[in-house]
Design a protein that fits this description.
There is one protein chain. The protein has three domains: 44 residues, no CATH class; 133 residues; 130 residues, EreA-like (biosynthetic domain) (EreA/ChaN-like  fold, 3-Layer(aba) Sandwich). The mean pLDDT is 91. Strand 4 and strand 5 form a beta hairpin. The strands form two sheets. The protein has a four-stranded mixed beta sheet with strand order 2-1-6-3. The chain has a two-stranded antiparallel sheet with strand order 4-5. The longest helix has 27 residues. Helix content is 41%, strand content 9%.
Length: 353
Amino acid sequence: MSPACRIADARITQGQEPVAAAQRGVYAAWSRSPQVANLFRYIGTASRSPHPLELAGFDLQFTSLASERLLNELDALVARLGITSDVTTPGSAARAVALNLLGRKYGTDGLPAPDAAARKEFDDGLEVLRGRLASATNAGNEGETSFWRQELTSVRASAEMTWWIREHGLSERNWAIPNMRDRQSADNLLWLADHQYRGRKIIVWGATMHVLRHASDIEATINPKEPRQAYTGLVSMGEHVWRRLGPEVFTIGFTCYEGKNGIGDPKQNDGSFLSEIQKDQDPSIEFEELMNAAHFDYALVDFRSPGVHGEWLRGPIVSRPLANQGMRAVWPNVLDAMFFIRVMEPNLAMPPR
């Protein structure tokens, strides 16, 4: 969930310049990218139309604005409702953990993860507050209290992931961290579908790895000399959502033939975050090679309804929608369509320092 996205959406709706508003709720890699700016301007224009677009978040990770504002908003809500909670009580152990968590102080070189007693106080505080919000719910505040109950569930999952990273580090080669993140992201997205946007179309923006399904069907290593981590054990957000919604979901992956990926401006000779995309990664005919040979600069290939001459798409094909690395899969089992870009250009947002 993302209170920051709600704040950004409210500012856009109120007429604030959309790009500046988005920068208050969306990660800088995207909100400060000149290539994405027109999308936010379009959201701003559409917000005043008969069919407005709204900005909402489902990721359990916090932006800087969420860290600054989440507890303040929560404090104000419980005060209005006349309820109390250890999480919103200054000086309590649960409050101290919440401040450190939202302040992102449990980094890999930061504070140690809380001990078992502190974690229990924090968990109990969240659960008690969720129950009191439920008891205080009425017809006039149901949308707000429901949002915050889900947000507290997401905060708990974020704490679990943050402390796991603090104790185990990022180098362990398994899918524990992505699975934690994607499980809660899916729960948040399904809450949005069931409550805030019930009966409406939702456009989900995320990395292909998060939105695909049946990840274990992907053969990650196609060259024994370049072994890659198998996707066995990865349960993506898209998998969780597909299990609930099935073909109501239409998932599009993105791929390209050549170019550069990463963040930075090649004209400034800043290659720290840039890498060349390898055109030919397997002796077989790759999906991207076929699209290039057909002289497409851009193409959307429908895997779900491929047409009379599209049966070849239902066989194993090497393609690279995941980190531009060639992998073999029956892609219609993983995605519903592929968007092809012949030449990929890097994100021109300022690289992280």
